[in-house]
Design goal:
12 helices; alpha+beta; Flagellar assembly protein H; six-stranded mixed sheet; flagellum; 333 residues; two-stranded antiparallel sheet
Length: 333
């Protein structure tokens, strides 16, 4: 298996199955302002060269503009020529006839470098000399993942860069295995990434995206540190095994737990009251009244806590009798 196959696979998975993730990248690179839910049409992603080789790329249509994004895991010095070849083929494919004249428009293109060196330019350039001697500069931006900090990634919602973030550390894997402090710093950084990702995706309402991105992050990490079991296992434990719970799901769970606690509390109060009023009739009436009152009282308290943005105290309220009574007094219930 070629080393870059896994990187290609992860990139294409996001481009084809999580296409919406590319919108913030396009906005950042090309200074556009497409909304997150803009309609994206995926164009045919391969064509055959004269020599028979099949070339694959990632081309997207947004409105009337074509975007071409290449993912590159090495600093290939021939990339500029390859890019203009891809883009020329696209321009020919979508050439528009205007009378006896054709208009060819190149796509808006960039190269996403997962790795780069000091010699990797910020732009890939080709001087194109036409038969009349006129020269035009073909120029596409080179986007280097290494230049994006985790804070910048989340600030700009560039979540599709997260699986490749670990690659900046690939040459330090053995060093981290041997140095507990460096290893812990890496784990702390990925704990922050996991936490920020939870917040970002909770706000977007796409719960399934959390597990999908975690899977891709772990897959790249496992590959990068395939010979460093300690590091690979550490990141896997930080990132793996977490299933995102949406705020609506959390509230429903807490309400269900509160209701169960209220019913139990009502039974307890009703039984005590019933025994005081009489073993037979008193117990039945007391249990019913106590359950209703206890459940209603606790439900009101929980709603008040949610409205006051104190949802993090609900769990303790339903399990800690002393705190529950204190809250009843605080809210005069």
């Amino acid at each position: 298996m070629r080393d870059n196959t896994i990187f290609d696979d992860v990139f294409r998975t996001m481009m084809e199955k999580m296409t919406f993730l590319v919108v913030p990248l396009i906005n950042d690179v090309f200074h556009t302002s497409y909304p997150a839910d803009v309609e994206i049409v995926q164009l045919r992603n391969e064509y055959q060269r004269v020599d028979g080789e099949i070339i694959t790329d990632s081309r997207l249509l947004i409105g009337n503009r074509i975007y071409h994004i290449e993912c590159q895991s090495t600093d290939d010095t021939t990339m500029a020529v390859r890019m203009i070849e891809y883009d020329f083929a696209t321009a020919v494919e979508f050439a528009r006839k205007q009378g006896r004249r054709y208009r060819m428009e190149f796509p808006r293109s960039c190269v996403l470098y997962l790795r780069n060196s000091r010699n990797t330019p910020d732009f890939l350039e080709v001087d194109v000399v036409f038969p009349d001697g006129g020269c035009h500069l073909y120029r596409v931006p080179a986007i280097k993942v290494e230049n994006y900090t985790k804070d910048k990634i989340f600030e700009k919602s560039l979540l599709m860069l997260l699986p490749f973030y670990i690659m900046r550390y690939e040459k330090r894997g053995h060093e981290m295995s041997e140095d507990p402090q460096l290893f812990q710093e890496l784990l702390n950084e990925y704990e922050v990434i996991r936490s920020k990702l939870e917040v970002e995706i909770t706000e977007s309402g796409r719960s399934e995206l959390f597990s999908d991105l975690i899977g891709l992050i772990t897959r790249i990490s496992d590959h990068i540190f395939r010979n460093e079991e300690k590091v690979r296992k550490g990141i896997g434990e930080i990132m793996g095994g977490h299933v995102l719970e949406l705020e609506s799901e959390k509230r429903a769970r807490l309400m269900a737990e509160a209701k169960e606690q209220a019913e139990a509390l009502g039974r307890e109060q009703g039984m005590a009251q019933g025994m005081a009023q009489g073993m037979a009739q008193g117990m039945a009436q007391g249990m019913a009244r106590g359950m209703a009152q206890g459940e209603e009282r606790l439900s009101v308290l929980i709603n008040r806590l949610i409205l006051d943005d104190r949802g993090n105290e609900i769990q303790k309220v339903v399990t800690d009798k002393e705190m529950r009574e204190a809250m009843y007094r605080e809210y005069q219930l």
